[in-house]
Write a structure and sequence with these properties.
This protein is α+β, with helices and mostly antiparallel strands. Helix content is about 25%, strand content about 35%. The strands form four sheets. Strands 8-9-10-11-12-7-13-14 form an eight-stranded mixed sheet. A two-stranded antiparallel ribbon has the order 1-4. Strands 2-3 form a two-stranded antiparallel ribbon. A hairpin with a 2-residue loop joins strand 9 (about 115-120) and strand 10.
């Protein structure tokens, strides 16, 4: 069970010319039924769970394109726990990744310590990674993909698409039914609808409606 709490101190609102209230809702896990939480749109970050327009892939339905299969043969990968040593390796790639997309560096890589990751190598050089967490309870296991990183020095590798193949491969190895891809917001998340097995959380149910999802991503961008 999740206890939902609201923060009316950092939250704010308007009641004169318009009705608008923001109170930063978040959840506190009261038990360990993690797969139930994830299946109801909740995603964990640090001490709390947040309900998102979550995106996931059904592992059994995921199928990479022929191009991705071919590109994947150029990449070697290895599975690791995120340790201090691994964080040191990832820091310069993280800087290149955020610079490429003009992202704010508001996530501290240290927050991922203890997670698991796939390190990606091209011609024996570390070029990227994917940081994820495996959740398990009495009903099974699932994989949540938290952070993808790439130095973008060789765009032809299409490492983002190749990484998705490797994530699903690892999920199959651990007998996971789903790979969760965090939230689906803004046009930066439109690519997630391209994967077979795609579905997203409406707040009430999981949907395969790609048109609606893409329209919502577009709306987010131009709000």
């Amino acid at each position: 069970m999740i206890q939902v709490i609201f923060d009316h101190i950092t939250g704010y609102g308007k009641v004169t010319k318009e009705d608008f209230i923001f109170s930063d809702p978040k959840g506190i896990a009261l038990d360990t039924t993690y797969l139930t939480y994830l299946s109801e749109g909740w995603v964990e970050w640090q001490d709390y769970w947040y309900n998102l327009r979550s995106v996931r892939l059904r592992v059994e339905d995921y199928e990479p394109t022929k191009t991705v299969k071919k590109l994947s043969k150029q990449i070697q990968y290895s599975l690791h726990f995120v340790s201090e040593e691994v964080l040191t390796l990832l820091e310069p790639i993280y800087r290149k990744y955020t610079d490429k997309h003009s992202f704010k560096r508001d996530i501290n890589l240290e927050d991922f310590k203890g997670f698991e990751c796939l390190l990606y190598y091209y011609e024996e050089k570390l070029v990227g990674a994917n940081i994820f967490k495996l959740y398990k309870d009495t009903t099974g296991r699932t994989l949540v993909s938290y952070q993808f990183l790439w130095d973008y020095e060789n765009p032809k590798l299409s490492l983002g698409n190749v990484s998705q193949l490797f994530e699903c491969r690892i999920a199959q190895f651990f007998r996971c039914n789903h790979v969760y891809l965090l939230g689906g917001y803004e046009l930066a998340s439109a690519y997630k609808a391209d994967f077979k097995g795609f579905e997203w959380w409406t707040g009430k149910e999981w949907s395969e409606d790609k048109t609606l999802y893409l329209n919502l991503c577009k709306r987010d961008t131009y709000l």
